[in-house]
Design a protein that fits this description.
Helix content: 10-25%
Structural class: alpha+beta
Mean pLDDT: 74
Distance between the termini: 157 Å
CATH superfamily of one domain: Nucleoplasmin core domain
Largest sheet: 4 strands, antiparallel
Oligomer: single chain
Low-confidence stretches: 1-13, 48-54
Number of strands: 10
Order of helices and strands: EEHHEEEEEEEE
Shape: rod-shaped
CATH topology of one domain: Jelly Rolls
Radius of gyration: 64 Å
Strand content: 25-35%
CATH class of one domain: Mainly Beta
CATH architecture of one domain: Sandwich
């Protein structure tokens, strides 16, 4: 039997998948039943016997599985790939353009004018950080220190010297004095000062005494009590007083004494 493999007449369309399946390495395959025309009897289907025979089939088209790639789909994919490639090329060109715009470092610095020399910046004013000192704040501080050592004790800023501070030279000013020759109360100074010394020029007589007060009257805080009958010469004190300096000469005949103070 001779079969023309280019002209096999199929009497009727007869292609179908039956329910028989075969499991292969690529998955489950359904058997397809195809009816072929017989070369001996026109209009009859081809039959097979026990003899081995070669059958040549020409397939104009076969159905594709769901989602299989077609020529049209490949063309679309190729166009998409070309579009992506053009965008990547454009992106590389843009990056190259950016690279040419970035100035090269000169001695580790980015040049502003190509010289890599530090450029001065002029600004009329710059914002201060929160809490920064202003002229008003500094003026207030200045006002507190302006009287340092230039005013009375109550209006001056105290200064504490360290215990191991070197000696400080102080310019001595002339002290004041008052001479007492009679008994009674003598207010020598009102206000704060320093009682430097008491000089007995002539002794007192008959239990005469000098009582020295830190006050403007012959009472209050006693600085010292001096027996002028048995005392002679200069008696050093160097004591500060705060209210005033008053001396009361009492009993007998007053000594002649000089009070030196500041």
């Amino acid at each position: 039997m001779t079969i023309n493999n280019n002209f096999v007449a199929v009497p009727a369309q007869s292609k179908s998948l039956d329910t028989n399946t075969v499991t292969t390495a690529v998955g489950v395959v359904h058997r397809q039943v195809v009816s072929l025309a017989s070369s001996d009897a026109t209009g009859s289907y081809l039959g097979f016997n026990s003899d081995s025979a070669k059958v040549y089939l020409t397939n104009i088209s076969l159905p594709l599985p769901t989602g299989a790639s077609t020529s049209a789909l490949q063309t679309t994919g190729n166009n998409s790939l070309s579009s992506i490639d053009s965008k990547i090329t454009t992106g590389n060109s843009s990056l190259s353009s950016i690279d040419t715009k970035t100035p090269a470092l000169v001695t580790g610095r980015v040049p502003v004018d190509g010289s890599a020399v530090t450029q001065p910046i002029s600004a009329a004013s710059l914002p201060l950080p929160a809490g920064a000192a202003t002229q008003a704040t500094l003026s207030s501080i200045d006002a507190k220190f302006s009287a340092l050592g230039q005013n009375t004790m109550s209006a001056s800023t105290p200064v504490v010297l360290s215990s191991n501070h070197s000696d400080i030279s102080v310019k001595n000013k002339s002290s004041s004095f008052s001479n007492i020759t009679t008994t009674g109360t003598t207010t020598i100074k009102s206000g704060a000062g320093i009682f430097r010394r008491l000089v007995i020029n002539t002794k007192g007589v008959s239990s005469n005494t000098f009582t020295i007060y830190d006050n403007t009257a012959g009472s209050g805080t006693v600085i010292a009590t001096v027996d002028t009958v048995n005392s002679t010469g200069s008696l050093e004190y160097g004591l500060a007083f705060s209210t005033g300096l008053t001396i009361v000469s009492a009993s007998g005949t007053s000594a002649n004494a000089t009070v030196i103070y500041e």
